[in-house]
Amino acid sequence: MSNLETKPMELRCGAAVDGERPAEAARVEVLTAREVPLGGPRAMTVRRTLPQRARTLIGAWCFADHYGPDDVSLTGGMDVAPHPHTGLQTVSWLFSGEIEHRDSLGSHAYVRPGELNLMTGGFGICHSEVSTPGTTTLHGVQLWVALPEEHRNAERDFQHYAPESVRIDGAEIRVFLGSLAGEVSPVRTFTPLIGAEILLQPRAAVTLAVDPCFEHGLLVDQGDVHLSHTPVGPAELGYVPPGSDALTLTNASDGLARTVLLGGTPFEEEIVMWWNFVGRSHQDIVEARSAWMEDAGGARFGEVKGYDGDRLPAPKLPNGALKPRGRVR
To answer: What stretch of H or E contains 62?
Structure first.
C-alpha cells in the first residue's frame, strides 16, 4: 500500500475534511527520551524516544532519534560508516546542517533542512552518513518505519522530496509523508502514515483535523508546547491513541516552537528489532547479521562506493533469543 492516493487519510478512515474544526477527545501519554551514543569513528549522542518499554511503535514508526543542535567544531559532526538495514524504511529530516548519503543502490544524495530522504531497506541495503565540511551545526531527526510482512523483503529504493510549507493559524507545516492540512506527500510508503514538521509562532495555537484511525506522536524539538492541554517538553514525545479526530498544538512561550508529528494506523504485527535490522524472529536477525559479517559486498546488502573507510561490524548477538515485541495497547 502507498500513500499516493488523493486525500489518502480521508478516503481510508473518514477523517474530517480540512478546514472543519472537529470535536477533540485526545488523551496524551508523555514519553521521555534516553541518551544513546551513535556508533562510528566520531560518536555523537542522540536522544531516543522510540522504541522503549512503554511504547514500541506509533503506527509503523518504530524508531525515533533526535539530535542537536550540535556544534560540529566541538563534536566532530556525524561520520557513520557503511552499515546494513533490513525490513524498514529510513527517514532523514534535518533542521540545520547537511549530511552526505551514499548507499548500495548507487544513490549519492544530500540531506538538507526541509528536505526528505527516504531509503527502503527491505531484504537488505547498506549506506553511510557523513556531515559535510561546510556544516557548522547539526540538528535533526532520524526515523525508521517498519515494513509489513507483505513487503518486508521489498527491493531497495531511495526517494527525495522537498515539501512546500503551508501556513495555518500561526503554524507553518511541511508534510513529508502522508496528508495533513490539505497537503499530500507523493512519497511512497507501505502502510498509511503521517510525518510533518510543524513550527508554531509565539503564543500560537492550531487545531489540526487528523484521521481518528491513526495513533499519533508529537516530538518536541524546542518550545513550551502543549498537546491537547498536556505539556510536552523538548526531546519528549506526546502519544495520542486512535480515536481523536483533532489535535490541538499550543506554543505557550514567546519564542518559536518546533515539533515533528508522526502517526499511522496501528501496526498489528510483532517485530524483532536489533542493531539496524527489523525482522520477525530471532533467526531473521541471525541470518541478517551473518550475511553482513560474512559476505562483504554480497547480493543481500551490496556495497557503498565512495566512502573513505571500513564498514561498521555488527555487534555480538545477546546470549538469549531475541523476542518479538508488538504495539502496546
So the answer is: strand 61-71
